[in-house]
Amino acid sequence: MANNKNRIALIGRIGSGKTTLFQRLTNELITYGKTQQVSYSDHFIDTPGEFVELPCFRPQAINVTCDAGLIVLINSSTDHQNSVPPNFVCTYNIPVIGVITKIDHRHSDLKRSRRYLTYAGIHPDKIHPVSAITGDGIRELKAVLQKYITFEI
Ligand SMILES: Nc1nc2c(ncn2[C@@H]2O[C@H](COP(=O)(O)OP(=O)(O)OP(=O)(O)O)[C@@H](O)[C@H]2O)c(=O)[nH]1
Ligand SMILES: [Mg+2]
Description:
Largest sheet: 6 strands, mixed
Number of helices: 5
Helix content: 25-40%
Bound molecules: guanosine-5'-triphosphate, magnesium ion
CATH class: Alpha Beta
Oligomer: single chain
């Protein structure tokens, strides 16, 4: 069976910026494409937003990510809605951090994102704001990721 211990699993609502962040972190060309299925790369597991957004898919979200080395729960700072249940991340017995995306956006609301992520069970010290478009916060996030996963990014 494949070992996902050295992979980072990205979960979060549809359009929250999981794939764009992955592309930025791995220095890939940033192109938009709706994630239709779980996608594995050397050090990431990218999931479709439906996995956390639709309750019927949540067990699937947990199944495919529960043996990763790190879970990254992503929240878009432009998102008015939350669909991650309270203390959702406590389901995992592996490390979880939160990432707030789209901080470059003029409708970005960091306070709201922090609220949603802490509601999901993430410790406030483990929340990292970034913009995958401007690159703000990306260097800091890479340093955090490298504490959990050993690879060059
Ligand atoms: N302004 C801004 N836009 C972003 C940022 N990150 C992602 N986006 C935009 O948000 C949209 C959705 O991004 P995706 O990365 O596809 O979102 P996703 O979470 O992978 O979505 P699903 O695959 O549908 O679950 C795209 O149009 C991105 O260009 C960011 O940091 N800033
Ligand atoms: Mg995607």
